[in-house]
Structure formats: C-alpha cells, structure tokens
Amino acid sequence: MADHLWQSRRxxxxxxxAELRADLIDLATACGVATTFDDWQGRKTTVxxxxxxAVLTAMGLDVSTPLATREALHEVKLRPWRRVLPPVVVARExxxxxxxxxxxxxxxxxxxxxxxxxxxxPLRQVDRWVDPVHVDGVLTGRATFELPDDLPLGWHxxxxxxxxxxxxxxxxxxPDVLDLPLTLQTGRSWxxxxxxxxxxxxxxxxxxxxxxxxxxxxxxxxxxxxWILVNPLxxxxxxxxxxxxxxxxxxxxxxxxxxxxxxxxxEVAYLTPGDRALVERLAExxxxxxxxxxxxxxxxxxxxxxQALEVVFAHGRTPARxxxxxxxxxxxxxxxxxxxxxxxxxxxxxxxxxxxxxEAASPAAAEASGLSxxxxxxxxxxxxxxWQCDEQLRTAQDAATAPGTGPGIVHDLAVGVHPDGADVWxxxxxxxxxxxxxxxxxxxxxxxxxWSQPPWRPDRLAELAYVPFRDMVRTILRHAxxxxxxxxIGLFRLWWIPQDASPAAGTYxxxxxxxxxxxLALEAQRAGAVLVxxxxxxxxxxxxxxxxxxxxxxxxxxxxxxxxxxxxAPEAYRELALASVTVHDLPPTAGxxxxxxxxxxxxxxxxxxxxxxxxxQDAAEQxxxxxxVRDRGLLAEDADExxxxxxxxRYLALSPSLLVGVSLVDAVGDxxxxxxxxxxxxxxxxRMPLTGPDGEVVLxxxxxSNPRARSLARAVDEALRD
Length: 722
Known about the structure:
Elements: H1 22-30, E1 36-38, E2 44-46, H2 49-58, H3 66-78, E3 89-92, E4 97-104, E5 110-114, E6 120-122, E7 124-126, E8 133-135, E9 138-147, E10 154-162, E11 165-174, E12 189-194, H4 210-222, E13 227-230, H5 273-286, H6 298-315, H7 319-332, H8 335-349, H9 363-369, H10 371-374, H11 376-401, E14 408-413, H12 422-427, E15 435-439, E16 449-453, H13 458-463, H14 467-477, E17 482-485, E18 493-498, E19 507-510, H15 513-527, E20 530-533, H16 541-549, E21 554-557, E22 562-563, E23 566-567, E24 577-580, H17 589-593, H18 596-603, H19 611-631, H20 641-652, E25 659-663, H21 664-668, H22 707-721
Helix pairs in contact: 1-2, 1-3, 4-11, 5-6, 8-11, 14-15, 20-22
C-alpha cells in the first residue's frame, strides 16, 4: 500500500486553523502525537487543534477542557511510576539494556530474569540517580537495573521482589540483525508475485486455492524460482457479500477458508457415497467459472465450499485426528475461539456488527449472555476451518520448499483490518476508535488518503506486551518462508485521521518501532523467514537505513526508482531489497506499456489534467527507463511487447537486489489492472482472474507449458546466473 499508489476515498475540505494550546502540545508530545510536520513540499505545517483533540480522545484521554488536559498529562507522566516494572521490556541480543524499577523511596528491590528454558540470572543495579516522585501520596523512587548482554533470544520474564511482593513482566530479547534464511545466504533468488484467488486450475472451485498454491510452487520451482509472494490470505466476512480486497480483512491473524480445497481435507476420503456425491455436485456447480474470464464470484464459490465443508465437518474425526485438532486449538487460543465466535455471531445476526444486540456486543457480553454456549457448534465449525487452513498451508509450504531453492511461500501482511471486523470486535481498546489510518497529501495524491482502517493504540499495545501483534505474526509465519509487510513505515508512525474528516486533517502518531520491528524480527528468526518491508512512498530518510541495519529487506519498483530527476541505474539499487518491474497497484507491464492505466483513469474520471497531457508525461517517463534498457543492449528499437517485458526484467536483474520479483500476470501477458487506486465501486478491484494477452483465461494446468511464461522465466533465471 505505497503512499503514491493510493488515492483518497474522501473529498478534501478546508481545515480551519486554530492556535494550539500549550497543554495540548505537551500532552500530544508525551503521547507521540505530532503537532507539526513537514508536508510533501517541505513546508512546516501545524496540525489543527481539532485533530489533536480527536486523536488524543481516541487514545482514551479526556481533553474536553484545559483542566482535563492538564490532568491527563499528569496521569500520562505518572503511568510508569505507578508500576514496579514496565508492562514489557524489549531489548536487542548482544546489547546492554536498562530497566527502570519503581518502589517506595528507600525500599530494597532485587530483579532477576527467568529464561524460556527455565534458567534464571540476576540483574545488576546501575548507579544512576533519578529524583523520586510523589505518587498517590507515596514518595516513589526509581532504581535502574541492567539486562545482561548475553541473554538468548526469546520471550523471558523479569521478576522484581520488594517488601510488598513480587512483580513481573515479559522481557523480549530480539535479534540485533535478522539472519537471512539459509537458502538466501548463498545468492540471489527470483520468484513469482501473484494474487492467489486469480490463479485457478481445472480443479478449483471458481477461486484459486491452497492446492493451487502448492501446484504453482512446483511449477515455479521447475522454472528456477525460489519463492512465491501471495496476496494477504487473511479472513474476510463469513457471510455475503465477502469483501474482495485482501488488504481489508476482518482479521489479519487467521485465514480465509475460501482458499481451502475441499477434496484435500483428509476426512473427505471417508464420506459415505451419498455425501461424496453431494460434495462433487457442489464442486461442479462452480467449476465452470474457472474458465470464465469475467469477474471472480467469491460469494458463489464460498456458498458451495461452505456447504461441502459442513458435510465433511459433520462426518467427525478419528481419535488421533481429534487430538491433533485439540492441540491446534490450544496453541491458537484464546484468539482462535474469539475469531470463531465472531464468525458464528455474524452468521446469526448478519453484518454490520454495530447492529448486533447488546448481548453480542463484545466477547465478554457473548460469554455472559450464553450466546457463546448457544453457538458452540458453529464456533467449533469455524475453529475446524482454521485447522484445515493450517494443514493445507503446511502442505503448500512443504511443496514450495521441497526443491531447496528458496524460502518458499512469502505471505503479505495488510496494514490493518476492516472497521467492522472480527479484530475490532475481539481486541477491544487495543485498536483506536474514532480515527482511521491513511496518508497525508503528497504529489501523487493531493487530497491525501483514507484507508478506513482503525490503528493499533500504541499505549494499549505496550500494556498488552505486544502479544496481539506477536500472535498475529507468529500464526502467519508458522508455515511461511517469508513475510512482506505492507506499508512497513506504519510500524514507525501512522497517519491518523479523525472520523469523517478529510485525510488532509490528520496527523502522525509514533509507535515504538524498536519493539515492533524487534518482535517481528524475533518471530521471523524463529520461523527461518525473510522479511520484506514495503517502504515505497513518503518515508523518513533514516527509516530505510534502520530496516537494513535490522536485516529487513526494502522494496524497489522499476518505474519508481529515481535518483533526483533521473532513473537509477540498476547497480544503484539496494542489495537488501525485493526488486520488481511492477506491483499489484499498477497494471501488468504489458498494460502499463500500452498506457492502460492512463486510459482507465480517464474513463473513470480520476485524472486531474487533460488526458493528452497525462499520456505525454507518462510516455516521457517510460522512455527514460526504456532508453536506459536500450543503452545496455537489452532492447532493440523495434522490439515487440513480449521482448520489451523480458528486457525490463533482464535490466532489473542487473541490480544487486537479493530478491527479484516477477509478477505472474507479466509471465502470461495479462493486461488487466488488478486494483485501481482511488476506486471502490467504479472498478472491479481484486476480482480479475489470470488471463493471457487475448483476454482468455490461463489455467494453472497450462502454466508449465505456456511459451510466454517459460520464456520470461528463462530470461530472468539466466540473467541472475550471469
């Protein structure tokens, strides 16, 4: 979700100026809320008081009056002093880290760290004076202890013993630098980037699925590819209409069961003849869609799959399989049961969840009212669906890594979740209410952007020891070789927009990037996975250096890699990067070369200047790149479309970038745009199946023998080996 690839969903309005009070500035600063920022033209901009007020209110603070604001600031400053230990300590491996400990002034205190394996070590107190503070009538002092620099990676526990008792908090030791997976330590690797739902075989149920992913991985490995980057596979609504955008899931932790291949569920083999015939009839109902180049119908596919899966679920499991299911549930709870309960409630009451009765308004309410018990069978079904997703993801990753040529499947993590989804219902105030996430105006989106997603609350996330974030990442990485983090700069700061305000009326809110990036790296290290940060668009200069220092790859897109006014030479690309010619927010390269993106935006009324002027500028920008490719002797003057696409990829392979991505749409000559930023109903985003240059469906069955795909794969593979 690069800043410059998205457009506003709302019309910008004039923001009335108001002088910021000193108390608001002080409180905002204490909470990481920007009161000024430099806009895309480098101008210092003061954030409106109304925005600051709305953002602080979303953080649970009362700023209704100057007195309330001062009291809120006092409480924010006292928060750490009210705790013996911080809510969580996140440190880097091999580095000393100081821990503040608060006790009544003069009281003795000892601190130890208990390691995951059961061993423990004492912490040394540092000779550092901090003036004591009166907290609720008690003079409270701060002692400073130091974590040893030889602690192993992991989620440990700090324990502080005082005369009043024992306090504890998680202590997370994270990699200083994330190790590359072994398969990437020996050299560069290329892989396919694809939208899984669009890649169908003759055995699909109208939508590309996890069995197709396993097959695609085998085909790709046979062509020399080492990995497959897929769209976020996160769950959407279990009731129609199912959200088409994979970047607006109902939860980021669990998987959309739409991607299940019903026949690959083990228990299908033991169905009665009648039930097996029913499953086959349901499949035949939607399989004709696999050959249809029209829009993908998720609702029809899910209706058929859900009915079939209910038949399989009702058949039951052997004791061994039941034990495996229970182990999965135990490992994923309580989050799994919370998500499954939301799904069952959505089936009962429909959506939006804002219309649900009070007894279903929260997990606690559903439990107290007896709804959870009443819906136990449906909750069990939705837990079982996630278990099946987990099993089929494991199978797909095993297939992808069997050749030993690369990390296998690389998943994609969306920026946030649907504002009316399962995470909003189950995570409570860990997500901020009354604000959404987006981006400020810039040269490409002069109205700014609103992505309609609620952000994490940085204060609550820390109080929860980042466990919701950890559990999300850990679940995704369990059967993955990598993770691409969309809009990775959101782990540093996010643009918060007050509800119903213009995107221009937002401000930046900072997060503890040391904690978030560290935990992300720890979970990736344990999974043996590579991390890729989508760091396109407006990025503070130091952020890319920081990510590289932590071993996290950045992103480089051919059309956007510039050094001032000139395109970068490929040798100037970053080594720690995933480089690609195109991305899912642009047309396939064949369509881009034909200026399909200009024609489409013109038809949809998205252009802000005459189409002739837009075409001329786009042609000039393309020619800057194509001229460099010709200068390298990679492209003839009279080259056709296919030769041009291959030349651009050969040119990209001249870069030192560790990963080179090839969009599957480029491999087959597809021309249609998968997602047109700035549209919702105006264009069928995220619904286009994989097609060839003639507009006809390209099935996975035919991909291995597709001449165009084989030629491009050979071109990239040879270029990386030269």
